[in-house]
Design goal:
Strand content: 5-15%
Number of helices: 11
Largest sheet: 7 strands, antiparallel
Order of helices and strands: HEEEEHHHHHHEHHEHEEEEH
Shape: globular
Helix content: 25-40%
Strand order of the largest sheet: 3-2-1-10-9-8-7
Number of domains: 2
Distance between the termini: 15 Å
């Protein structure tokens, strides 16, 4: 059943060009209450309407839904601790600058790393960039990215402020692979996808399912412009110059063959909901109920942003959760236009999937106000 108020609002944002499609799901106490699909999942090179089972590039929702969830499982089993030093696992971090960095710092974005870096443009990466797209060893590419992270100076002292950074979850992905002693992709499939019986959730190449997937940007003009603005030489890199559709939008994840700790997850609204339920004590199948407290606990009270394990908290100023959600609600956004917020007290889950990077010239729309309005309308509908 759809919510007329929510659907009408989202259609209005489609009409003004914020995004070409939107699929939403609103649930309470483990049950879907409202859902709908609007607009076109693909406008170019053909027109395909969005459906409630359209698969979206979830982008950074990968961080909590995959990497954060697997870290919580390892913490629960005692194989990983929030206080573990990263240098315990990687000697490259045993330096004056980085030796104090912990798993908690990575999970809460208090590591001191800068926000982003195009690893695919690093000067010596040209030796393997072409090989990466031809199916070269994922292990070699991952080792390269790990070395790049390890040698990058910190932007801020450890534990001084929250700076949201892809570095943190890339490193956590490598750490998970090291602890499980198997490929990250294999761990994701066996520990999450298979156990939850997900059939429309993927990480990695999806070209054969293209017509079921929402399209993204034509080429990588956004990242290319960012690289130019940061002073990188972009002339020698083979940029994608075609419609990104059925492969990950994020450039670093694409360089890593579509599998990484920070991006790469594709899913539908309903299967995103199934994973989201793992963070609530009364619906989780993969964690002990008490482990779910990690996701609503503020680990960064003294800092500039309220963060729990892998999530932002609604207590953060100007959070996209809006004032309609409790302060200990937790959520995450994806650059492609996706979002997930969970209210643990009322056991409510709010999922909004859009593809704002598709069929639009730069700049992409900032849809944070639309996200807030979505949560306000959805919460009011549930309160009726």
């Amino acid at each position: 059943m759809k919510s007329e108020k929510v659907s009408t609002f989202l259609q209005s944002r489609i009409d003004v060009g914020d995004f070409p499609s939107a699929v939403y799901l609103i649930a309470e106490k483990g049950e879907i209450v409202f859902q709908d699909a609007l607009g076109f999942a693909v406008l170019e090179p053909e027109r395909i309407k969005a459906r409630t089972n359209t698969i979206y590039d979830l982008a950074s929702l990968t961080k909590p839904l995959v990497t954060g969830l697997l870290c919580a499982k390892l913490i629960e089993s005692g194989e990983l601790s929030l206080t573990d030093k990263i240098s315990r696992y990687y000697n490259e971090f045993n330096t004056n600058e980085k030796s104090a960095m912990t798993v908690e710092n990575l999970l809460t974005h208090t590591s001191g790393f800068q926000a982003w870096q195009p690893f695919y443009l690093s000067h010596d990466s040209s030796l393997i960039s072409e090989a990466a797209y031809l199916g070269d060893s994922d292990d070699e590419i991952n080792k390269f990215v790990l070395r790049e992270i390890a040698k990058t100076p910190l932007e801020n002292p450890i534990n001084s402020k929250v700076v949201y950074s892809d570095f943190n979850f890339l490193l956590l992905g490598f750490l998970i692979e090291k602890i499980y002693e198997r490929e990250f992709h294999h761990t994701i499939v066996t520990e999450i996808f298979d156990r939850l019986r997900l059939t429309h959730t993927f990480i990695g190449g999806l070209d054969t399912l293209r017509r079921e997937i929402a399209a993204s940007e034509f080429g990588n003009e956004y990242e290319k412009q960012i690289c130019v603005d940061l002073g990188f030489d972009v002339s020698k890199y083979k940029w994608r110059d075609y419609q990104i559709w059925g492969e990950v939008h994020d450039g670093n994840c694409y360089f890593m063959n579509g599998v990484s700790g920070h991006a790469g997850l594709f899913s539908t609204a309903e299967e995103t909901f199934k994973i989201a339920q793992q963070f609530l004590p009364n619906t989780t199948q993969l964690l002990k109920p008490e482990t779910c407290e990690l996701f609503r606990t503020n680990f960064t009270e003294e800092f500039n942003e309220a963060r729990s394990i892998a999530f932002q908290l609604a207590a953060t100023k100007d959070s996209t959760a809006s004032a309609a959600l409790a302060k200990d609600s937790f959520g995450h956004l994806g650059f492609t236009g996706t979002s997930l917020w969970i209210d643990p007290e009322k056991e409510r889950i709010y999922i909004l999937l859009t593809n704002r990077t598709h069929a639009r010239s730069l700049p992409f729309a900032n849809i944070n106000n639309a996200r807030r309005c979505f949560h306000e309308l959805a919460a009011s509908e549930l309160a009726v």
